[in-house]
Design a protein that fits this description.
The radius of gyration is 13 Å and the shape is globular. The protein is built from no helices and 11 strands. By secondary structure, the protein is mostly beta strands.
Length: 123
């Protein structure tokens, strides 16, 4: 499975962005997927995850209520809608394709990773 993340860019605090992650194979619809991020000088952290049906989602406390993860299995695409962005959201965002069908916060549950897309939030 190859993952191609896109949609990053420069936005002012309070603004919105939508990230997309296109998967190369149809089989991606049977696996959980997630977004992680790595801020400058920090370790990679969990952002949001979604089960293969899209019925279960999970969010990091820092983004809950502002970010929404979703997927379109017919298009093999994962999304992350980010609203009310904060400067602390500045990071490279990575999409990940899971080993199992459920949503997980653990990076060890994800085998395939996208190349990352940079989100920069200015004050």
């Amino acid at each position: 499975v190859q993952l191609q993340a896109s949609g990053g860019g420069l936005v002012q605090a309070g603004g919105s962005l939508r990230l997309s992650c296109a998967a190369s194979k149809r089989t991606s619809s049977n696996n959980g997927m997630a977004w992680f991020r790595r801020a400058p000088g920090k370790e990679r952290q969990f952002v949001a995850s979604i089960s293969w049906r899209g019925s279960d989602t999970d969010y990091a406390d820092s983004v809950k209520g502002r970010f929404t993860i979703s997927r379109d299995n017919a298009k093999n695409t994962l999304y992350l809608d980010m609203n009310n962005l904060e400067t602390e959201d500045t990071a490279v965002y990575y999409c990940a394709h899971g080993l199992r069908p459920y949503a997980s916060r653990s990076s060890s549950e994800y085998r395939y990773w996208g190349q990352g897309t940079l989100v920069t939030v200015s004050s």
